[in-house]
Amino acid sequence: MTPADQPVFRQSPAKRARRADAERNRAAIIEAAGAVFAEQGGTVDVREIARRSGVGMGTLYRHFPAKEDLLATVLEQEVASWLTAAHQAAAATEEPWQALTVFFEQALDILARNRALVESYAAAGPPACAPRRDAVMDELRIRCVNAGLLRGGVTTADLVLLLTSLSQVVQAADDGHPGQWHRLLRISLDGLSSRHTEPLPEPTLHADAPGND
Amino acid sequence: MTPADQPVFRQSPAKRARRADAERNRAAIIEAAGAVFAEQGGTVDVREIARRSGVGMGTLYRHFPAKEDLLATVLEQEVASWLTAAHQAAAATEEPWQALTVFFEQALDILARNRALVESYAAAGPPACAPRRDAVMDELRIRCVNAGLLRGGVTTADLVLLLTSLSQVVQAADDGHPGQWHRLLRISLDGLSSRHTEPLPEPTLHADAPGND
Amino acid sequence: MTPADQPVFRQSPAKRARRADAERNRAAIIEAAGAVFAEQGGTVDVREIARRSGVGMGTLYRHFPAKEDLLATVLEQEVASWLTAAHQAAAATEEPWQALTVFFEQALDILARNRALVESYAAAGPPACAPRRDAVMDELRIRCVNAGLLRGGVTTADLVLLLTSLSQVVQAADDGHPGQWHRLLRISLDGLSSRHTEPLPEPTLHADAPGND
Amino acid sequence: MTPADQPVFRQSPAKRARRADAERNRAAIIEAAGAVFAEQGGTVDVREIARRSGVGMGTLYRHFPAKEDLLATVLEQEVASWLTAAHQAAAATEEPWQALTVFFEQALDILARNRALVESYAAAGPPACAPRRDAVMDELRIRCVNAGLLRGGVTTADLVLLLTSLSQVVQAADDGHPGQWHRLLRISLDGLSSRHTEPLPEPTLHADAPGND
DNA sequence: CATGAATGAGGGTTCATTCAT
DNA sequence: AATGAATGAACCCTCATTCAT
């Protein structure tokens, strides 16, 4: 009760109190928006998000000046937290190929439950996250290359494209065929193994004819 | 004024003229809708389609009671014509594996130019076409199996899922990296080759797609 | 009942029927908007106009893609009809000075009952109408000059500014003092008479000090 | 911590500090609001004022329960300070007619730089100031009347209306024709001169403004 | 008392669908 | 049967005002 025990932070309590509440609201909005976007995609009515967050429209727009800002924030946060987990999982896995496999499994597991995230991949994903994602995937690739496990000529861009490709399939396939994408993932990853020595088509010369043997 | 010039079918000429006109309108609508949906996806304003078809909104809605009906019709027609071409190409290609490759190349080439078609794949495709598509793909699969080229345990559902997966990537990647999907296709198909003998993950229950015994 | 009596206009009736209805709606919108804008100014809710026109929002926006377009159309139409009447009145009045007086009386009478119109004068008026208005006023000015009634150096721009100036006062003053602006108009017009021979301040050199005698 | 330095009033120091703070806040709000209203008119967002004053919304609304109260206060204060200056200038000017001219020049100069002030004139001005303003203008009028310079029958209400009228024109005309209003002022004042002996139109009943016997 | 976050009733605008002609 | 104008429920966003801290 005496002011003696807060000798250092004089104005902090008030400021922090407000901040805390606002931050709680902001978090609630992000969480609700995350759920709603995941369920219904990026086209949902903003009111639905406000309702689920338990805040008014004004609060929502105070934190995110436009719907798109909210969507971007949510996506970036989700991607960031995914990448953190992915990085840890990769570090914890000795075997390079298994690390790569786990990475894809984990990513697709998340994507399978998030419509907005998948939608964002169709539009090349939230740009801010791409570098970090590419870094994580690059590391996984290098490890496989160094272990002689990865097919020659496979770039990180190829891996990203594979992820994009698979991301779009986890939801469609989950209607009635849950988990079928695991098979497709296995097939694709096998196609990446060093068992295949044939060169891949050049990325720059988009040849319509398939042959390059 | 007298109906003297149509002695046999009294109301037929009018009806027939109507029919012909209606059919021409229907075709115009489908063609315009096809172009518009391909360019802009399934969310375009219906007015745009009416404008490009040269018909009024009423006519459009007489032929297709809802936007979605029009979309479904257009997609089914496009898929049908694709499958016809695909079937012919497959019949004309001796080598089973190349037939499979050509099939995918051709399909993705079409999908790369058609936003609505790609969107439809995210929603499991126009249902009415699935059986025929599955039949065509099943035949390709069987040929590869019989030639000992296809990995054991690969189902037609797997191939469909692969197509779905790749379909989503042909447009996204075409920004800046046109044709990069050719590499991914090659990788995936290689993953399907009989070089790989490891069993694929179980489809986890109820598979509706054609079998693979 | 026989088609003999419409040998010439075959497709016209249908087309014209629709047009007529749409035109009636358009007119209803403009009229309602005119009334509402006049009463409440340019900030009224578009819904209020739709309600008073008896049309839906869509109809309103079909005819006027944006609220501002509607406002501009209404104002231009009102100004145009005013100028037509003003031109006729001017032509019908022999005496140049009385013609000028009548012009101002008429104009201010209209402005006194129209908030939006007055508002538009604060923003230099609907641009499209200015030339015609200036032409009408220029003619009035010339007549007075030729008759030796107008003070030397008075430009049309001065007259326009006078109109603008008085326009803003007809409503404010009408609360409790209806018609008081007639006195001010008389005073201002008297200041324009050739009885005054002192030169007016130069328009380009905006001198803050008043003296130029 | 001890209230030793204010031995007489025990709770005063806090209260007085509060009061001083509150007064400083109030002044800051009024100043910021004055600037903002002058620049952007009365429709500005209240947040803008809070921001420029450096106070929170709550403080602003504590001092002024509604936006309109703030606007009224600001306007009244500005008008009051203007009237003080105007009164001094009038007293310092020997010549009655020049005093009147200077009054208008000064007033319009102020109005030219203050959107909200001009807007308020369209709505008959901040009511609380009218009496004092009328008094100042009445005195100017009387001086001119006594010197035989003013046209017969000109009331203070006429002068007020002239000011109102001109106020609306100083901004509109300043786009491209800065200072053009000086010409209009000259014309109007000339119309007020005793050179004109024709009677003005009757005020049509109930005049609230100071008389002109 | 100050703060500034929260509120929510509108405001302008769009577009799938219906309906009078 | 064709036309395209009409409908109106939503949608995204703003801002004067209130209220918890």
Textual characterization of the structure:
- The structure is a homotetramer of 213-residue chains.
- Chain A has 213 residues and is an all-alpha fold.
- Chain A folds into two domains: 10-65, Arc Repressor Mutant, subunit A (Orthogonal Bundle), CATH 1.10.10; 72-204, Orthogonal Bundle (Tetracycline Repressor, domain 2).
- Chain A has helices at residues 12-40, 46-53, 57-63, 67-92, 96-111, 115-122, 130-146, 156-167, 169-174, 181-191.
- The radius of gyration of chain A is 22 Å and the shape is elongated.
- The termini of chain A are far apart.
- The interface between A and B is large, with 48 and 50 residues.
CATH topology value of the largest domain in chain A: Tetracycline Repressor, domain 2
Question: What oligomerization state is this entry in?
Answer: homotetramer
Tell me the total number of β-strands of chain A. Answer: 0
| CA gyration radius of chain A, whole angstroms | 22 Å
Largest sheet of chain A: none
The CATH H-level homologous superfamily of the largest domain in chain A: Tetracycline Repressor, domain 2
- Please report the distance between the alpha carbons of the first and last residues of chain A: 82 Å
The structural domain count of chain A equals: 2
Continuous helix count of chain A: 10
- Share of residues in helices of chain A: 55-70%
Helix and strand content put the structural class of chain A at mainly alpha
**Mean pLDDT over the full residue set of chain A:** 86
CATH architecture of the largest domain in chain A: Orthogonal Bundle
| Largest interface, Cβ cutoff 8 Å | A-B, 48 and 50 residues
Shape call of chain A? elongated
The low-confidence parts of chain A are 1-13, 206-213
- Percent of sequence in beta strands of chain A: under 5%
Secondary-structure element string of chain A: HHHHHHHHHH
Q: Report the CATH C-level class of the largest domain in chain A.
A: Mainly Alpha
